[in-house]
Specification:
This protein is α+β, with helices and mostly antiparallel strands and 249 residues long. It contains four helices and eight strands. Helix content is 28%, strand content 24%. The protein is globular. It holds the Pfam family Sortase.
């Protein structure tokens, strides 16, 4: 019995040590990945390119030169959300586990749905819900109305324009398998037709956790942010906003 007890203690000790090692490695990797994004964000404040040879080039153009998959930048003041947004229509989830520079990354990079297009009326952006609070983890705070009241605006800038969006709905929803019926929010990337726009708004309104009093009208450019909840594999948390102002870049 004593021998078995020693073996059991040794076994669980090894498992515990391995778990601590894996956790430490994940934490270190997470800090390194976030530091890389922080450097990209800091570069946006620089009026010149890195070599100082092109003062007329915008920071977004410089990022586009670094990586042609760069589409825009999303940020929400007062949160950790401050990231580039990628677009690879021929490889929809290319940045699911890749960093901005293409290297392997647990955090990935927020990316546009492959079905999005200019004029479609809805920018659908996916991002991970990381346990360290990075990426789109802060979206889940919008389940509380007081958090929305304190953080009502989303900034989403592209090479073409700087855009400010007003949040008007937050909700939980499932990802449905083929043959199931339900609100498949991820299918509404083209709401350029009034009937599709109104159908999307009606379903968003029906799913919303609370009433914001903000109303969208046909013709408004919308933005939809999506992340996992970690409560179940097929559940997502979604935030929807309408553009209230834009400025050509």
């Amino acid at each position: 019995m004593k021998t078995l007890r020693r073996i059991a203690i040794l076994f669980f000790g090894v498992v515990f040590a391995i778990s601590l090692f894996m956790l430490a490695r994940i934490l270190v990797q997470g800090r390194q990945e976030q530091a890389a994004f922080d450097r990209l964000s800091a570069a946006l404040e620089q009026p010149e390119s890195a070599d100082g040879q092109n003062p007329e080039q915008s920071p977004y153009e410089a990022l586009k030169e670094q990586n042609p998959d760069f589409f825009g930048w999303i940020s929400i003041e007062g949160t950790n959300i401050d990231y580039p947004v990628m677009f690879t229509p021929d490889a929809p989830e290319h940045y699911l586990r890749r960093a901005f520079d293409g290297s392997s990354s647990q955090s990935g990079v927020p990316f546009l749905s492959a079905d999005c297009f200019a004029g479609g009326g809805n920018w659908l952006i996916y991002g991970h819900n990381m346990k360290n609070g990075s990426m789109f983890a802060d979206l889940l705070n919008y389940a509380r109305k007081d958090f929305w009241q304190a953080h009502p605006l989303i900034q989403f800038d592209t090479l073409e324009e700087e855009g400010t969006y007003e949040v008007f709905a937050a909700f939980y929803v499932r990802v449905y398998t083929e043959g199931e019926s339900g609100f498949a929010y991820y299918e509404y990337t083209d709401i350029s037709q009034q009937a599709d726009f109104e159908e999307y708004l009606a379903q968003v309104s029906g799913a919303a956790l609370y009433d914001t009093g903000v109303e969208a009208q046909y013709g408004d450019q919308l933005i939809t942010l999506s992340t996992c909840t970690n409560r179940s594999q097929d559940e997502r948390f979604v935030l929807v906003g309408r553009q209230i102002q834009h400025q050509d870049s």
